[in-house]
Design a protein that fits this description.
Oligomer: single chain
Largest sheet: none
Low-confidence stretches: none
Order of helices and strands: HHH
Number of helices: 3
Length: about 130
Amino acid sequence: MTQPGGFPQYPENPNYPHHNYPGPYGPGPSGPYGQPNPGPPPDSNLVWGILTTVLCCLPLGIVSIVKANQVNTLWFTGQYDQAHRAADEAKKWAMWSAIAAGVPILLYIIFVIIMLVAVGVSLNEVTP
């Protein structure tokens, strides 16, 4: 019997120890080099960073996008704690971006309501 390429196929020798070397399609489920599989990477919050950049506060949203882009890079280099930290930072910056846009909008709405009430009171005094 021969293998592809014309090389002979040798039977398994029970005297040699068997090693768990990676198969032809990469390492097994335990991860590279025997490390435990940490699971999927954390949510990078990239969508929130993009939305807050476009709709809210540009500088804080950009920081959120940069932190969100670091998550997968850190995760796939094996720096799992830093990846979780970057994901939390991206979420924090996106939240602060939304708050930075929400507070002025809320103050503007309060100002408009006060002005409408003031104008309404003055119109009632003028009209017969």
